[in-house]
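2024-03-11 09:14:02 DEBUG pipeline.ingest accepted 1 chain
2024-03-11 09:14:02 DEBUG pipeline.ingest length=243
2024-03-11 09:14:03 DEBUG pipeline.predict start
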Amino acid sequence: MHFHILTLFPEMVMEGLDTSITGRAMKNGHITVNAVNIRDFAENKHGHVDDYPYGGGAGMVMQPGPVYRAYEYVRNAVNERQMQGANCLEGSGEIKRPRVIYMTPQGKVFNQTLAKEFAEEEDLIFLCGHYEGIDERVLEMIVTDHLSIGDYVLTGGELPAMVVIDAVSRLVPGVLNNDISAEFETFHNNLLEYPQYTRPEEFMGKKVPDVLLSGHHKNIETWRMEQSVKRTKERRPDLLENG
């Protein structure tokens, strides 16, 4: 799977993703991450990509031109790779347009269902805004998905993009050493994950539940389901309502 990030801070996203599970997945070729610096597509010697908003107001707004040219650069590269790989849409002779995800507090809130949906894509382009946002015209031209990671405001879209990429990457085959982990972890079937324990059997007077030491797999499975339901009722009852 291929992730493309349009950003003003490519070092930030690359350094953050080139670690742990995502870093290993990149090294093993299960995913690729390409951070494209929007400033490289500015048409002035100073690399300015923002200007004052029409109508007045605080802050600056990212200009449409550099964003669109950065997008076109990525889209052309994706199209060329698809053509070389003969990945045209069957029977149409057309190249599949990659989804462009704009990270914004105004977007749909990200969840595990969306992570699974995104994981079915071959390419995802993430657009990271800054300042007071991005000129609306280019958003209308290129964005397919407006996405948020919660009802709060951050300095830019880089951290949210990294969150989504991390969650989606876990669902790509081969990324996790044990692919079963992705299927049965938190939010599986709208339930939170059951409690986990490891050695020692007793820690500061607290013991591992006896059922987990019994070796009786059916009883363990039943206990884990009961704990998942109990934990979900206590911590995220909304998941049960939505289920």
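2024-03-11 09:14:41 DEBUG pipeline.report The chain is about 40% helix and 15% strand.
2024-03-11 09:14:41 DEBUG pipeline.predict end
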